[in-house]
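Quarterly update from the structural biology core.
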Amino acid sequence: MSVLGIDPGRDKCGVAVLNSAGEIIFQHVIATADLEAALKNLVAQNEIELAILGDGTTHRAAEKILRAVGLSVQIVDEKHTTEEARRLYWKKNPPRGWRKLLPTSMQVPPEPVDAIVAEILVRRFLATS
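Predicted structure, tokenized:
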């Protein structure tokens, strides 16, 4: 069984698929306009049984898309996930060069962390269920 996580947004969505062992199968930031096509491909390629959807921006539109591709949806609170994702980003990608001298709390990741937020949403859900 795999679980899909989505951090919905107006322009882009973070998407992550984790297997039953908690390993990341897929993690990417996708343009919101391309979400439905991407989800159809992910569902076809993976045995996804459940979608975890953050309750933030445009989650209602994303929920319609998830249900249209045949997934059951669980909406979860995404409070403080961006801050947690930034910390996790720096753990996965430690600063190099002169950036090592600055605390990571003072740095902004050089790429969007939406896909990491999607991962966090799935892990939070699995930890409480």
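The radius of gyration is 15 Å.
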